[in-house]
Design goal:
Two copies of one chain form a homodimer. The first copy, chain A, has two domains: about 120 residues, 3-Layer(aba) Sandwich (Rossmann fold), CATH 3.40.50.2300; about 150 residues, Rossmann fold (3-Layer(aba) Sandwich). Helix content of chain A is about 45%, strand content about 15%. The first copy, chain A, has 13 helices and twelve strands. In chain A, the strands form three sheets. Chain A has a six-stranded parallel β-sheet, with helices on both faces. A four-stranded parallel β-sheet of chain A has the order 7-6-8-9, with helices on both faces. Chain A has a two-stranded antiparallel ribbon with strand order 10-12. In chain A, strand 1, helix 5 and strand 2 form a beta-alpha-beta unit. Chain A is elongated. Chains A and B meet through helix 4, helix 5, strand 2, helix 6 and helix 11 of A and helix 4, helix 5, strand 2, helix 6 and helix 11 of B. Chain A binds a DNA duplex through helix 2 and helix 4.
Amino acid sequence: MVGIPTLDDVARAAQVHPGTASRALNEETRSKVSPATVGRVLAAADRLGYTPNAVARGLRRQRSMTVGVLIPDLTNAIFPPIVRGIEESLSPRGFTAFVANTDNDDYRERRAFEAFRARQVDGFIFANARRDHGLIQEAFNLGIPSVLANRRTDKSLFPWVAGDDDDGVEQIVKHLVELGHTHVAHIAGPQNNSAGFARAESFRHFVKQHGLRELDCPVVIADAFDTESGGSATKQILHHFPAVTAIFAGNDMIAVGVLGALREAGVHCPVDMSVVGFNDMPLAKDLAPSLTTVAVSGQQLGAMAATLLLDEIAGVDRERTVLLPVELVVRESTAPPRVGALSLARQASAARE
Amino acid sequence: MVGIPTLDDVARAAQVHPGTASRALNEETRSKVSPATVGRVLAAADRLGYTPNAVARGLRRQRSMTVGVLIPDLTNAIFPPIVRGIEESLSPRGFTAFVANTDNDDYRERRAFEAFRARQVDGFIFANARRDHGLIQEAFNLGIPSVLANRRTDKSLFPWVAGDDDDGVEQIVKHLVELGHTHVAHIAGPQNNSAGFARAESFRHFVKQHGLRELDCPVVIADAFDTESGGSATKQILHHFPAVTAIFAGNDMIAVGVLGALREAGVHCPVDMSVVGFNDMPLAKDLAPSLTTVAVSGQQLGAMAATLLLDEIAGVDRERTVLLPVELVVRESTAPPRVGALSLARQASAARE
DNA sequence: CTGAAAGCGCTTACAG
DNA sequence: CTGAAAGCGCTTACAG
């Protein structure tokens, strides 16, 4: 026998009709075949090293057992664990994932979407949602089973899985207030991104609820969830809000940028400035100082998103929104504010205004 | 028209036979069809929003236009850029990637391999090679087109793309020697991994070539390319080799572990100890101190691996080994050794022996 | 230049 | 319980 064995090869070897071989090989239809025949077919399949051709099966069943995953930027440390979780959850149910980076670029995003559609994916996991997202709206109009991971659209189109940001932000604000901070700044992520938007909203809410004055708690919007944007936002804060003693960064990458800018400005973290991140990405604990942040299990998030999607594909009704528990991880980057006067560095920085 | 339009729908709308519609739609066969007919078919396809079913085409052509990518750990920051590069190179040629995490686990690895085979992938990119790798040997025996990315097997089975480690290590050793270091330690990655093995070999070679004494340049083998292993290896070095003034870490993650362990031991980097990493992963420049390391373009590496694979699939002969250029990026973590006596901290650390 | 037909490797109603 | 046949949506030699 040359080449990869097919069902016909197995049927011939087992001396049965291909239809019978197919039924014997398939768990769900096996009961329709006599045990003796099943035995012969299985033995033949085993002997030949037969693996069903998933492409042919997909064509016939009109189900590719394949899922498209759209990631905005795999280089952002929070997404790899999500991808892992997705695979973890897909694989035991016989599904496989196509993964594409979209780079927050409409063209690349659409290209990936269409390539995956042409490949007959049974559904999509979008980890790249913006609050107003044309492509996702389109997927909704086309009735394609989909789930949103991490970020969501303003309109409730598809089921959505994310960490409980509101709870995370409350824990952060509470932690800082308990340390004695009264002037806390927030560097928010882009506001067309639901995470950036929601965390900023929660921040404004909880800061007020914990008795801080709105004026003392400025929100600066970063251009992106990255270190550069975090750095330049920090410079703005140091310049315009010298009374601030704690910065809550919209995510860990922004926080890394904050730490860098503080170092550059000679502002010591945590003595002169506390810093909090969000996500607890892999290296957060290895930074100097190690980063206080809110942990969300990306793997769990991905796994849950995949589970919801598979249920949706199978026609099972499920909850539309899953908020995963989050946990504040206190490390070295937060401390009580320095009592009394501003540090020398902060004074100098303020004097330069 | 309900549901996704098929070729038959297009043919009917254009009033031609499906075979003709197929030829008109396909660039390579279009010249066999009269321009008028091509026009009608294209118009009909456009009007219906027709996209060819890649699964059906794959079945018929015996070519899925699909590639399997095996990544040992997507959470390791060097792999996401590689995946990006792979997609970058695949997509314009009409290919799409299945991606799986293997976690250096034989079982998961094999499961992914078989799932991808069942999906009729046209080839594999293995970024998870160990020097002696059963699964890759098996792929070779089966004659499956494949390319190794980053790591390789000892036996030359498939084409291989990687950074020029030997050159990178030479640049590192040269840099440290020029700074005045005479006692340099290397924390090598696992020796069943070609990168870990080759870098250690190169280190031993160049250290000698640059006139350092073998005895002064110990090599400690880390259990894994991660921070924990880097940390414990550092403790060993501080304990057993107090004269060492520079550590070359097998990769950046190990280097992060080194920095942490030094901080914990009160050894100042770079004043008391220089540290060099390898790979220039995304956060290397944001560490404190920022990390001197060797930059390899993961994206370029992935793109090249995909290109080699597609050529192999197309039956084009290509070079078997591509070494990409590397570049030493000097940052804050390296400096001349402190002259004269050991620092107090190092003395104390040595005294504790 | 176009049509008719076979076939890629499966699954699954339909008979018997 | 098993076989015969149709068909998923394409492509492509083969005629004409």
